[in-house]
Amino acid sequence: MRILTCLCVVIGMGLMFVPSAIGNGPDKIKITFVNSPEQITRGVETEITVGFEYTLESADEGEINLGFNTDKPNAFKMVGSLIVQRGNGTAELKAKVVPVDWGQRGRFTVLINLSKHPHETRWKPLASDRKEIPVGQ
């Protein structure tokens, strides 16, 4: 009985941590890599390149936005974007950012999202993904 209970807890926890790269509909985006020519150090501006793959099926044109949680642990400041056409593709975006070590409050994280283009002033992305970035001292 204990094994079955543990198995159910593990399965339940796995469902809680489903990657955000899985969209609710036909549109998807997934971070494939995060690179920097230098070590990523707290408080030191560095250029970060984020590679991703996407599928846009619900609109003829989409906008991919790149952001980092540089101002608050749970909020993302968008620093780059790219317009894409319906279909599948891979691309990358680069941005210069000053990494933050949030300590117990959170982890330095990159966010990428896919939205229809054009979109309203307030909108919900079609798909998104995020990845924690280790920060050195």
The pLDDT mean sits at: 86
Distance between the termini: 46 Å
Structural class call reads mainly beta
| Largest sheet descriptor | 5 strands, antiparallel
**CA-based shape:** elongated
Number of DSSP E strands: 5
The helix content, as a percent range, equals 10-25%
Give the low-pLDDT segments: 1-20
Task: Offer a few descriptive terms.
137 residues, mainly beta, five-stranded antiparallel β-sheet, 1 helix, 11% helix, disordered N terminus
What does this protein look like?
- By secondary structure, this protein is mostly beta strands.
- 11% of the residues lie in helices and 53% in strands.
- It has one helix at 2-16, and strands at 28-35, 46-72, 75-97, 109-116, 127-132.
- A hairpin with a 2-residue loop joins strand 2 (46-72) and strand 3.
- It is elongated, with a radius of gyration of 17 Å.
- Mean pLDDT is 86; it is low at 1-20.
Compose a concise summary of this entry.
The protein is mainly beta.
Topology:
Layout: H1 2-16, E1 28-35, E2 46-72, E3 75-97, E4 109-116, E5 127-132
Antiparallel strand pairs: 1-2, 2-3, 2-4, 4-5
